[in-house]
From TrEMBL:
Domain DUF8163: 1-164
InterPro entries: DUF8163
Keyword terms: Membrane, Transmembrane, Transmembrane helix
Domain of life of the native organism: Archaea
Protein name as it appears in the record: DUF8163 domain-containing protein
Pfam families for the chain: DUF8163
Residue stretches spanning the membrane: 39-62, 74-97, 104-122, 128-146
Length: 164
């Protein structure tokens, strides 16, 4: 199937939630639901919709953005819990089931580095809107990088053409 044949219907028909997707949605919903009540459950439903409607890392990005919006003034434990709970969504987007242990270890290391950066930004930014703006810019940059990588990996463009 080429890029022009992808529609919402074909993605929904072809997408199957993996056990890691289910674990990620459940853990994220529990983490934000316990601290934010009904708004946390609504965020979990939004992440579930994103996981069911897409095959890429969009569910992880949605989870991160909803966590930032819900926990703008929360403590480190609440923010860290939501970040950790969303990890299976990222792993599921990156790898098929069952995952390769070496790749998953590299992904976990990258995730820990990302958590360190998020913590540094969260602890140094003064207002919640600044943290939300940083998270949105970071999510856009990561999504763009993954998009460029996928185009090369799928053979839609040659590697030299992707450098432009």
């Amino acid at each position: 199937m080429n890029q022009s044949e992808l529609t919402i219907r074909t993605v929904l028909d072809a997408n199957e939630l993996t056990p890691m997707d289910a674990a990620g949605v459940l853990c994220f919903t529990l983490a934000v639901g316990l601290t934010s009540g009904p708004w946390g459950v609504a965020a979990g439903v939004l992440v579930l919709v994103a996981a069911a409607a897409t095959g890429g890392p969009l569910a992880f990005v949605v989870a991160q953005l909803t966590a930032v919006s819900l926990f703008g003034d929360a403590g480190l434990v609440a923010v860290g819990g939501a970040q950790l709970a969303a990890f299976p969504l990222l792993a599921s987007a990156a790898f098929a089931w069952p995952p390769d242990r070496a790749r998953l270890a590299r992904l976990a290391a990258g995730y820990v580095v990302a958590l360190g950066v998020a913590w540094a930004l969260w602890s140094t930014l003064r207002w919640a809107w600044q943290a939300a703006a940083v998270a949105a810019v970071l999510a856009a940059a990561v999504a763009y990088g993954l998009h460029r990588y996928e185009r090369v990996a799928l053979g839609l463009v040659d590697a030299p053409e992707a450098e432009r």
